[in-house]
Amino acid sequence: MNCLPLTLLVAVMVLLTPKSRAAERYTPGEPVRGKFQDFAQPFLQKHCYDCHDAETQKGDLSLVNLGKVDETNASLWKSIWAQVTLQEMPPKQKSRVETVERLRFSDWIVGELQRVMKDKGGFNAHLDPKKGNFVAHHLLFGPLPAGIQLQPTASPARLWRVTPQEHITRLNELINTEPAYDPKKPGLRTHGDAVPVNHGGELKLYFGVDNILRWEGGTVAYATAVKSVPVVLSSARKSGLKNYPDFHSVNSAEATQILGKAEDILKFMAYGPLSLVGLPEQITADPKTYDQFKPKGDLRGLPTAIVYSPKVLRPLTPVVDLMKENESTDARLRASVDYLFEALTFRPPVAKESDNYVQIVKDAIAKVGHRDGAIMGLSSIFLDRDALFRPELVETGKPDRHGRVMLQDWELGLAVNHALSYLKPDATLRQAILAGRMRTREDVQREVTRMLNDDSIRKPRVLQFFRDYFDYDLAGYICKDTKALAATGVSTRGDAHFRAMFDAAASTDRLIEIILQEDKHVLKQLLTTQRVVATRTDETYFGTRLNKAEQAAAVAAKKQTDLAEMQKLEELKKEIAALEAKLKTETQNKATQKALDQKRKLLAAEEKQPEDRKPKRKRGGSNDEVAEADLDGLQTYARVGHRSFGTGSMKPERTLATAPAGQRLGLLTHPAWLVSQSDAMDNHAIHRGIWIRERLLGGGIPDVPITVDAQLPDEPHNTLRERMRVTREKYCWTCHQKMDPLGLPFEMYNHAGLFRTTELDKPVNTTGEIIDSGDPKLDGPVSNALEMIKKLANSERVEQVFVRHAFRFWMGRNETLNDAPVLQAAHRAYRASGGSMKALITSLLTSDAFLYRKVERAEPARASGG
Asked: What is the model's pTM?
């Protein structure tokens, strides 16, 4: 009779052992229960104490006395989470951790950190897009081990703040009329495109610049005098994916600024350039008539320095009708309220919203009068929740058996619209929403396909994905040391260099659009194309930095050429002198006169060569340090902003050319990307290596420990590779072996992006290696960046990692194991279509991860993890 209880006791003990826990079913997303003593400590004892007990303390770290998660040891537990999740700990040659056991332990740490840090700033590291790769790639695209049970995916219900680019483009619609799409000139700024940055890289909203006829002073005076306001909404992230809902909110300072900008915008909507001037005479078709009225003195940089055309070039809206009368009617008030509400929130107001805002405007008018009150009351709409956030709250839908609710009607329609556009839904999508035809997967497929196939519907969100993914638009914000920049061989300095980099970003935008238009093998094309979109300045940046011997040869050759030209001119002058002397004695010799006229014309032509025949020169003389690239080709255009710097504003004209063979291969060898991955003084091989590891190979890099002094020695006479010897120290090399050998092949370019064969008069070493990529076919040494890029561009794994980043961008969150079916379907769609970005986007936007939301229910209070 005593055998049965004994058997039950043994069974219970087995179930409670760590090994049996590893064999339990694992469902991603479900909380992992367990206390430190019976869950986490056995894991540490089994897998970690061999290296981190009181005696060994590898890396000066002992885990023996580590207790339950609390605020004092949270940073150490975070480090353990990263090492275990990335399969860095325990070492592969040590004890083997089963996949489910590792996943459960990782989730337990995250859960405990969230619980402990809830009231202390929270724990959100696992939600950061840079941590997206912490989910093992082979589990997302390969077979799952036994014991893992996926559940149907969904994204969390959320409020998604609009991006700075989207917000300023939305406001721009209220005051500027952008040109319609011209299929004959693709690339020019078009209605629906994002507002581009100006010549100095600032994102600003410009008032009335299309009406400007004249101004006093030069470029700086223009930039100071013209009315503009900077973007208000902030972005905490400067690189990588930036548009996650959890990243951004609107603080009180931003709200105050928005109200101030709203007043400026509403006044311009109502009165046009009249709201910008000090004198009404500044608005005239003939700028000369203003001369008799303008104030005396130096007007440069002042608003009174500008003369505006009286032509109505701004959008005419109900606000014009409301403000032109001294009194308001209910009809005009409501028309203005409803127009502004839809222009700012992208949906029409419901009756209650319309009534509330009409009453707010009426109350303001009653207090301060018609004109000021109307402006004050209408300004409040700019702070409506839906003018700054896009709700995905699924408050009216019915959950399915998995607790998911499908977006529908305006929430679904605006989600689709936001995925591609910065403008409010066009008439077709708006009507579909109102008619109840935005409620199914098929409805989404219909609208997404229509929008993607219509070039006149601009899709700035797609281009923003590539900016976030490649990070090629950061070069103009890298503050270069003047002396270090001069040493690269470029002739641009200071603002001229920054301007060249902002031009380069716009040119890269255009190249990406060309490849997207073709829509075949998009990623491979971006990585390997020989095409470049360039300005004249790019002939230097895409050129070759000459070594000392080449410079000497170039100088000698130039001297020889100049000498030959001088001798040619001298001979020509002698011939002319001889003919002139002959004519003095043979005044009627027509043949001699004709020969003389021909020689004189030839001399004049030689002395006044056309610009395209002159040797290309930098400011201050010829550039003997650089062999400039030949970037002749077809004309194209790049998107640039409104006139922001007078005659010095950015110009749209570009050339579609071919990069020098054997020197360039795809975007990663273009100066825009190379300079974006540099610092003030030199290349940044570590950043470049991290980029390759994370964006192409799908690997993860743990955060740098706060105890590490992550600086290279200051040794001006040593190359970057030589100074990076410190990263090969044992403590550092564990991580740096995964990034340094990937970044050093790009040493074939200097930190301004010029191709080179020497560094500090030494042959440049461009070798590197792909290590532990996850694909044995990729691993191995490479001789330079071009060889490495070719290998990567042909990799299926790299394609899959690209799909993962596209998922993050369009879903606004990191992928989980539950998203594996969505990612695999998206990759299949991309491959089956021959590398079509349209097919990839369509697959993602019709997936459950995009269509469904799940309301997070508050969990009951959990007991301490101890």
From this structure: 0.91
